[in-house]
Amino acid sequence: MAWRRMGKRLHFVLVMVLLAIPGLAAASEYHGQVTFNGMPVPGVTVTATEGAKSFSTITNQQGMYSFPDLPDGSWTIEVEMAGFAPVKQDVVISPNMPASKWELKILPLAQIKARIQSQVGSASVATLQAPKKQAEAKQPPPTQETSSAEESNPFASPGLLINGSVNNGASSPFAQAPSFGNHHPGQNGLYHAGLGMILDNSALDARPFSISGHSTPKPSYNQVTTILTFGGPIRIPHLLKNGPNFFLGYERTRSVDAITQSALVPTAAERAGDFSQALSSQGQLAQIFDPTTGLAFPGNVIPQGQISPQAEALLNLYPLPNFTGNGQYNYQVPINMDTHRDALQSHFEQSLGTRNSLFGGFGFESTREANPNLFGFLDTTDTFGLSSDVHWWHRLGQGLFLKLGYQYTRLSTHVTPYFLNLRNVSGQAGITGNNQDPANWGPPTLSFASGIAGLTDAQSSYNRNQTSAVSYDFMLLRGRHDITFGGNFRREEFNDLFQQNPRGTFTFTGAATQSGASGGVDLADFMLGIPDASSIAFGNADKYFRQSAYAAYISDDFRVRPGLTIDAGMRWEYGAPMTELYNRLVNLDIVPGFSAVAPVVASTPGGPLGPLTGMRYPTSLIHPDWQGFEPRFGIAWRPIAGSSLIVRAGYGIYDNTSVYRTMALQMAQQAPLSKSLSLQNSAACPLTLANGFSTCPSTTVDNFAVDPNFRVGYVQNWDVIMQRDLPFSLQLTATYLGTKGTRGLQEFLPNTYPPGAAIPCPACPVGFAYFASNGNSTRQSGEIQLRRRLEAGFTATLDYTYAKAIDDDSLLGGGGSNTSQSATVLTWMMPGGGQPGGTQQGSPTVAQNWRNLNAERSLSSFDQRNLLSFQMQYTTGMGLGGGSLLSGWKSTLLKGWSFLTMVSVGSGFPQSPLYLAPVPGTGVTGSIRPQYTGAPLYSAPAGLNLNPAAYEAPLAGLWGNAGRNSITGPGAFSLDASIARTFQLHGKYHLDLRVDSTNALNHVTYTNWDTTINSAQFGLPVAANAMRSLQTTLRLRF
Amino acid sequence: MIQKVFAALLLAAMPAMAQKVGQNAPYKPSQNAALKVSTNLVVETVTVRDKDGKSIQGLTAKDFTVTEDGVPQTIQFFKYQELPQTPVPAQQAASANAQVYYQLNQTQISPEEPGSTKYKDTRLLALYFDMTAMPPEDQIRALEAAQRFIRTQMRADDLVAIMRYSGAGVEVLSDFSNDRDRLLSILETMIVGEGQGLVEEPTSGAGTSDTGAAFGQDDTEFNIFNTDRQLSALETAAEMLGQLSEKKALIYFASGLRLNGLDNQAQLQATVDEAIRSGVTVWPIDARGLVATAPLGNAEKGSQGGISMYSGAAASALTSSFQLSQDTLYALAKDTGGKAMFDYNDLTQGIVHAAQAISSYYILGYYTTNTAENGKFRRISITLNNNHGATVDYRHGYYASKKFKQFNATDKERQLEEALMLPDPITELTIAMEIDYFQLNRAEYFVPIAVKIPGSEVALAKHHGAQHTQLDFIGEIKDNYGTTVTNLRDKVNIKLSDQTASELAKRPIEYDTGYTLLPGKYTIKFLARDDETGRIGTYQTTFVIPDLNLVKNQIPLSAVLLSNQRVDLDQALYNAVKGKNQEKEQAVNPLVTNGQILIPNVTRVFKRKHELYVYLQAYQQGEQAFHPLIAFLSVYHGQARVLQTAPIEMPQGQENRLRTAPLNFKVSLSKLPPGEYVCQVTVLDPTGNRGAFWRAPIVLMR
For B197, which of A122, A347, A881 is closest by C-beta distance? Predict the structure, then answer.
């Protein structure tokens, strides 16, 4: 019982104690949440009222409110928030009571406005209008008393505004530039530029070699080339953010170049008709005979009265000798050539999204040249070329690509000869039969067999060529196969305004002053006014040639294994024979055996039809050759895994391209559409200087014909290359290259016969040259090369080639590519580029005996039996071993030097001996070869390189037996060297200074020998290669 | 003091919500202008191989002699690292997934602090694709080889970076990473066919097709220039990699590189020098693989016509041009200690060779005895004391650090970029930042960013008589995947009048910028530098741009901007954008009205004498008709409301698809005692029975 009472007391005490602690006993924690649409409402005033007692709190972010110690009992809870209907409810507060939930209801607009009152009188209401300017903007400067507070919080004061860049990507953030702002670092690194200057001044060069032996003052010349290059991405702020990458290069050359030219000109005595000193090529006195009487001129002097007034007039154009010669040369003069060249080149590349890219280029070159010749005739040549191309690269899908291209090129050449609109030389001299339009004023071309300088000047011309080409290429990459196929088409236009030979050509061989086979002086012939041959071609000066070329190919590059690749493909190329816009082409329709010819004109109504054969001709007058299929195959193989030995082999057929141009040019200048003659002086057709261009019944009025079934030549090439690495970065390569050319061009003179022979077929037409395609050629070469690859700045190559080439063609190679080459490219960079011939086209040689074309089979003109070349280049301070880390004065002194040397020694190129005389019945000279006497060719008398006794004039009635290309020309030797130094100026600025020396040893080498046996210069070098010259290049790169 | 603590608390307590306010470090008034002292620790990774090319193990620090510019150095720490050689199991490789990205972003090779090795136990392989030196088929071959390597050969400890050059500048598409998915995705996304206009085609010389062109452009200068540029790009790449003191292999994909006589020799030398100085070995891979060709070219190539087809000149030109193109690659490899891979179709093998060359190395570090901060290159020589036959491969030197005063423009720029990439913030300058957002259209949000820097911390160039002082700002926003979405670089040149100079001492600098972003989660890293002293402050934070289109039963609201300042734009210290572009920018900027800009307060500390401006936008996208809005501002102190404005009524929104309703409040706080308050904005739509509430704490100062 006591325990019970005790318990009650204890209970009471406990309650009292609990009550004494506020909020524990008589008060409870009370909380709740205010929501609107189920979302918490913060900032709501919650007031709890019980009688006079009133507590108030505010809901937090979560809409929660809490009264931590509300005395237990019944309270009126009021939930109040502006804009909402107030909520009032009585709640009994007790311990552990659950949270209350209050859902507010929004009031209508009007009620809200009415109810909300400003709680603090001064709190103003902002209006939607912007506040008046300068109202609040200009803050009063902080007063001194507040500064301590500001120091304690640096951010409390209003800030000083800096308006930074703002990126307002208008449509999509993906369109944003990767970076924005007003500062673009690293832009400099994107751009590169170069400034170069190439200088060549005669002061530093060696004196040119005088082949005449007569020394003249060193010509003074100067050449300055300025080069400017610049490239990088085009970015124009706010206009072109991601522009194309571009390259721009500009090159300007101003040069005055001088060479010394030597010649043999008529002496004062000879000009007066006195040939008492005239020597034959064999060194004996050459007797001259009067052609009218057949008797020797007394004292070897032509009487004044017999001297042709035309010859006298033309002789005035010749300078007098300026030194007493040795019978080989008596005149020497420096010739200054002026060249102005400006060239611009540009390239661009632009990616368009992830699938497309566009790239192309544009370039032009303008050249103004003024070239005087030996006679002081100053001709000017202006050329302007431009090229542009654009390519579109498109990704069709995974591993499938398409490339489309368009190219346009144009070249105009304008030649203004000296006498144009200046003086009608032919007319004043009394020469008739040639074209005497003011554009073609000037002397006829004179050519002398004995080596007297031929009178010549450029022809007036204004040619504009242009080519448009489209191409498409597909590339399909599937696994180990890389298949490409595509094609291209191009249209070439040659708009020529020139005449082939409007002023005419006279050739003098001494035949007129000869008696039988003895005596005769070509200059005496000239004085008498009797040429041995003449030729002329003019009429329809404007010619518009058109040509289309097509190509298609498919190729598969198959990566069989890591160490084996096979590439096989087929290409088809077709170049349509050239046509003329107005079909002004003339070919000859020829019966088999050349017994009769008749002109066939492309513009014939109803289509050209052969009058003799009845054959239908296309308007090009040459049947197209569609068979340009060219299989190509290559294999590369690493036979031993892990070894560096690589074997490559390949085979391919390559067409001879652009072959029709020479033919079309000649076909466009023929009777009946124009005048073209090639005549020999004969009793039937007497030629004089005054009247040398009249038709002759025994000679065809057209001087050119081409086989209507002319086929495009092709060449088969096959090679095997073995390559292996050796220690010390050495690499050994052995190459075998075989070449076989088929359907080569041959040119011959049908129905001709040797001088002095009876005419085999008097009725047969003679006087025209004929083009056919039955030539063959072959070349085999073996090459062994030992190279040290570039390491530590040192590289060297030793290369030996043994080759032999044989052909019976009159010309190898067609037009080929027409690409300008810069003088700054060192030839050794492109072996072969420096070899004679290069890619330029020579003129066709005419076969001597049209009945025996096999006799033309000989070594090729480019046959160089042995060629040894060595190149070495060393740059100091390259690589770890080379001193890359040198610093201080050692670095300044020793680093950045480069040395380069190239040596090449080779055997001479073959040359043909010539006997200069017209082929009977034609005006063609240069195809007759002399008779070989059996005397040793190379054991020449002092001063000569070939023995004149080895040859004599061909025997009467027979062709000369000396073989084509049977003379080995002068051996080739060259040694070039360069030294260069790089200076690092500042940052990425580098200055290169380089001196290139051509023919560093100043060693005399010759281009070729004079092989015309009736010339006074036979056995002498025609020209010497350039002597040492130093070219300085200064280049600033940044 | 209390207010200061308030401010700090306020900034620290900001919840991770969309609108961000923050500061890089608590401001210390006593903070000294002392520059960070860079350590003089030099770290080198050294490989030692015997005559057979095998790594020599078990060497100790005593076996090495280290000299710097000829002065012997004491090795302070030494470690041997061995990397496993076996490739990863195939199944692990299969897990790698590649996706094609919408676009590729440029990044940078992030530098490491001087004296540290960031990448331990790893080998660094930089795959460098020279797109201007590769035709498309070779580009594909190169990219496939790289993918194959990453799928099948790459080890967990391989770190691969991807670099590309396509004509403009060197792009770093991926910093060193072992995230295969990402690497593969980048490779997958890289465009094939780039740089085509710059791929050198032999358009001159004996190896050319007959194009029938009337005129051919002489490309000599172009080729010289191009080669120079390719080599120069490689030099830049080496320089970038040089920021890391570890050994780096640069795997260079190119279809040969042709020197044009002596003309490119100087640039080749510069490139090799830079690679050696940067400790980069170049491993060129000839992307052409094993080339099979017919003597004068394959079927793609037209016949060239001309005599050179007959004379052998064309064939030999082709061969020698091919040899020359390999020579340069060979030299790059040999001169830098790498090895070139030629004539092999499996290009992956080339990468494997480069990787395997780094199999084990020693890390040794020393404190240099040369403490001069002169920025000069210092040559390091490391030799073995006993084993003379061994080859020792290491970075042959480093560039000493420089004093800021000696920095040139490039150094300064690099300092900024490096600071931006460093993981830890720099607090030499105090930076406070506020990030807001305003919806522009259905997709885009304009994100104004306000940065405050105490003017007193910006050194006063005026003291030295200068008329200008310069501030640099650089910022970068990355998305959730670490891809840079956008970045900013402003250079601010402030003209210092006497008045500006004195005000700078008391007032903060307020730099405003803005971005257009899509909804999402972002990280911003922002950096400011005082160009006078070189002091830098960085601030980094994450923020979220909410998709307001998803807000349904509330009124979608923009960020709420609290301000105590509205400034005439022409009163700004500096305008980064000028003229028409400035007008264009301001037309879009919601904070600009009538030539005045509302400046976010950033720290939300106000003075009683200031007016409180509040700006926000409410949106009613998709509503048929505009619902009139009612909005009011309340201020609370403790558990009581101390202030409430009269309601603003918005009867009409702007005429756009969002029906933007801009809401402006201006309140005087002068009647309130200093202290801590909560500011609340309530927006109600009685018609639509919707509401929206926003609140934030503010501090009121005397």
Answer: A347
B433 close to B23: Cβ distance less than 8 angstroms: yes
Q: Kindly list the structural domains of chain A, giving each domain's residue range(s) and its CATH number in brackets, ordered by start.
A: 19-112 (2.60.40.10), 866-906+929-1038 (no CATH)
CB A445 within 8 A of CB A503: yes
Would you call A391 and B196 a contact, using CB atoms and an 8 Å cutoff? Answer: yes
The structure tokens listed for B261 are: 């006589």
Interchain contact, B204 vs A878, CB within 8 Å = no
Q: Helix, strand, or coil here: A139?
A: coil
Chain B: closest CA distance from residue A905 (Å): 16
Cα A197 to chain center, whole Å?
21
Task: Report if pTM > 0.90.
Answer: no
Which ipTM did the prediction report? Answer: 0.80
List CB contacts of B559: < 8 A, sequence separation 6 or more.
B18, B19, B435, B436, B437, B438, B616
Tokens of A476: 């399909």
Nearest by Cα to B212 from B299, B296, B302: B302
* pLDDT, chain A, mean: 83
| pLDDT given for residue A184 in this prediction | 53
- DSSP state for residue A811 in the 8-state scheme: B
CATH number of B15-33+405-547: 2.60.40.3880
Burial B402-436 (b: 16+ CB within 10 A, else e): bebeebeeeebbbbbbebbbbeebbbbbbbbbbbb
Residue of A189, A549, A812 with shortest CB distance to B310 = A812
pLDDT band at B6 (very low <50, low <70, confident <90, very high): very low
Indicate the residue of B206, B221, B457 with minimum beta-carbon distance to A832. B206
How many CA atoms, within 13 angstroms, populate the side-chain half-sphere of residue A551? 30
The order of strands in the sheet holding B158-165 is B170-177, B158-165, B123-130, B248-254, B280-286
Strand (E) or helix (H) holding A505: strand A501-508
Cβ contact A160:B508 at 8 Å: yes
Name the helix (H) or strand (E) containing B226.
helix B220-241
Strands A445-448 and A501-508: parallel
Question: Is the pLDDT score of B248 beyond 50?
Answer: yes
**High-pLDDT (> 70) share of chain A, %:** 87
Report the half-sphere exposure of A62 (CA within 13 A, side-chain side): 7
Instruction: Report d(CA A179, CA A829) in Å as an integer.
Output: 44
d(CA A483, CA A475): 6
* Residue from A41, A129, A165 whose CB has the most chain B CBs within 10 Å, to mutate: A165
Whether a cis peptide bond, with omega within 30° of 0, leads into A948 is no
Which run of H or E residues covers position A270? helix A268-271
- Nearest CA-CA distance, residue A665 and chain B, Å: 16
Domain boundaries, chain B: 15-33+405-547, 41-83+370-395, 90-201+219-293+342-358, 551-702
* CATH classification (class only), B90-201+219-293+342-358: alpha beta
**Partner residues linked to A248 by β-bridges:** A230, A346
Tokens at A38, concatenated: 């189920």
Structurally, what CATH architecture does the domain formed by B551-702 represent?
Answer: Sandwich (2.60)
Which residues in B lie closer than 8 A to residue A142 (C-beta atoms)? 506-507
**Cβ separation A113–B647 shorter than 8 A:** yes
